[in-house]
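[Q] Does anyone have a clean structure-token version of this?
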Amino acid sequence: MIELSKDDMKCIEEFESQTGAAVVDCLISDAAVAFIVKQGDLGRAIGKKGANITRVRQAFARQVLVFEDSPDMEQFIRNLFGSIAVKNINVHEKSDSKIAYVTVDEQDRGNAIGRNGDRIKVGRSLLQRRFSCDLRLVSK
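[A] Here you go.
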């Protein structure tokens, strides 16, 4: 079970009121606010021609990342990368840890990492929270 702080709850309430999408989890970092929305609510979160997400970004005055939830770890990882083509996902399990190696094209590496590494940092944190798994990016 994920514990949410009062700040997390306030962000979720604001996001849900602005978009109408149901939020499953929220992660606040210095550079961005990330939301995991219920399966099927990603379109509602973004809105027609991006209207909802634009309004949310203005309200939070920082980068806002939105990902669709999935109970399947591999699908959740694919959702973290959105439109970036994920070629392969290999999960290595050791006695006390899991690491997911995600392979993307070399030309997509920059987008996968994000500005100042924000996307990959948020992705690692969310994957750790949801599945107790670390994330490593591999490019070919």
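[Q] Thanks! Anything notable?
[A] The chain is about 40% helix and 30% strand.
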